[in-house]
From TrEMBL:
Phylogenetic placement of the source organism: Bacteria, Bacillati, Bacillota, Bacilli, Bacillales
Organism in which the protein naturally occurs: Listeria aquatica FSL S10-1188
Transmembrane segments: none
GO molecular function per UniProt: 3'-5' DNA helicase activity; ATP binding; DNA binding; hydrolase activity
Protein's name according to its UniProt entry: Helicase
Record keyword ATP-binding present: yes
């Protein structure tokens, strides 16, 4: 058993003296409470065929039943390891990034909460490096949590590279890594529910400009996973309204890292649920919401850049759009020999809709282009890719805004891809 994590019955190999246990689900049937995930919503509990009550909300982390216990060891002060200058990074921060970095360092030193309000693509990971170093120098235990698995997977090698000596594990639904008392944990926000009184600092990368709505139980999970004096640092491009108000009133500690070079913010993508689009495409149909969006842009004479997870999907959608009367359409992908010419024709407005794989996600600028992703849940659309795609809109100072829409198989409330 390792301190700081909750074990289910049978998961603890030995029973050390210090082991403590508590009931997983408390209360009676009218007022249930799952200690592990914080669920207290009646319809998020269910019964098995044999009548055993369990929590549906954290089912993906193995079922907890009413009679189950959670076992844990309290993390001890003398388990801490103190590192000397663990950060091995030769990179340089921009002036704006330094402002963010200094605020993170100060929050870590004082164990005070912080909102790092940073526009997507502003280099937020680099802004955490110095704060992490200070934390490890003080022997603190740190978690970096993101709602998205792909973000965690991308972060692992980056943090391993800059903190080569700090034991680090990356935890997500089917991760190879298993928690073995590491001082530094990268985890999906879902994994936080397994921890108890362990972290001194929890970074929460909300990625909330993207099709992943805020987890209603996240606050509980963070509170439970941190130590009594621990703190949390939220990193987000678009804080919720209440938080923005608190920042304005000066009651929420925050640092705001501004905008892109022309002073306007990155367009905030809108997530639109379109259901099982693959099934529809088989019948040569696409969701009305997509067609309406295209129609709206074309009525305003805006060029459209539409991204796809796969080449075949792109061709199928092209066919449907042509049937719907859109004729000035072209497709590009990495092996397309005419790619350059097609991009030029789109830039010259000879074509009005350009369909693309992720090949055009970076490096291209089109004036006043409106951007959408079809099937944004696809694995190719990592956070980094979606940030780049969103960045295609509003690049020109003359047209600094633009719509960005992510059409997705999942609805915002779906947890399917999030643990
Ligand atoms: Zn639960």
């Amino acid at each position: 058993m390792y301190p700081g994590i909750l074990y289910l019955d049978g998961e603890q190999s030995t029973c050390p003296d210090r082991m403590q246990s508590r009931q997983a689900i408390a209360g009676d049937e009218k007022k249930l409470f799952c200690f592990r995930c914080g669920n207290n919503i009646p319809h998020l509990f269910a019964k098995t065929f044999s009548g055993i009550l369990y929590c549906r909300n954290c089912l993906m982390m193995k079922r907890v039943e009413k009679s189950a216990c959670l076992h844990y060891l309290e993390a001890k002060e003398d388990d801490r390891i103190f590192f000397t200058r663990p950060l091995k990074w030769a990179g340089k921060l921009s002036v704006a990034q330094r402002k963010g970095s200094d605020a993170v360092v100060s929050a870590v030193e004082r164990l005070e909460p912080l909102l790092l309000w940073a526009v997507a693509g502003s280099g937020k990971t680099e802004m955490t490096f110095r704060g992490l170093e200070v934390a490890f120098e003080h022997g603190m235990r740190v978690c970096f949590a993101s709602p998205r698995v792909d973000v965690c997977i991308e972060l692992l090698p980056r943090f391993q590279e800059v903190f080569p000596d700090v034991p680090l594990v990356c935890l997500y639904g089917d991760s190879e890594g298993r928690f073995q008392g590491e001082q530094f944990v990268i985890a999906t926000t879902h994994q936080l529910i397994r921890f108890y009184h362990y972290f001194d600092v929890i970074f929460i990368d909300e990625v909330d400009a993207f099709p992943y709505a805020k987890d209603p139980f996240l606050e509980y999970a963070v509170r439970k996973a941190k130590t009594e004096n621990g703190t949390e640092i939220y990193i987000t491009a678009t804080p919720e309204k209440a938080w923005q108000d608190e920042c304005m009133k000066g009651i929420r500690q925050h640092v705001k890292i501004p905008a892109r070079y022309h002073g306007h913010k990155l367009p905030v993508p809108e997530a639109v649920w379109i259901g099982d689009w693959a099934k529809r495409l088989k019948k040569k149909q696409i969701c009305k919401k997509v067609l309406n969006w295209i129609q709206k842009q074309r009525q305003n004479d805006k060029p459209i850049l539409l991204f796809f997870p796969k080449i075949e999907v792109m061709y199928e959608v092209k066919e449907v759009l042509e049937q719907a009367g859109y004729l000035k359409i072209e497709t590009v992908h990495s092996a397309d020999k005419e790619r350059k010419e097609k991009v030029e024709r789109f830039r010259a407005r000879e074509t009005s809709i350009l369909l693309s794989t992720t090949i055009l996600e970076r490096g291209v600028t089109f004036t006043d282009v409106q951007v959408a992703v079809f099937g944004s849940e696809g694995v190719v659309f990592t956070e980094a890719a979606l940030v780049q795609i969103a960045g295609r809109a509003g690049r020109k100072a003359t047209h600094p805004t633009g719509e960005v829409t992510f059409f997705s198989l999942w609805s915002n409330t779906g947890n399917e891809t999030r643990y």
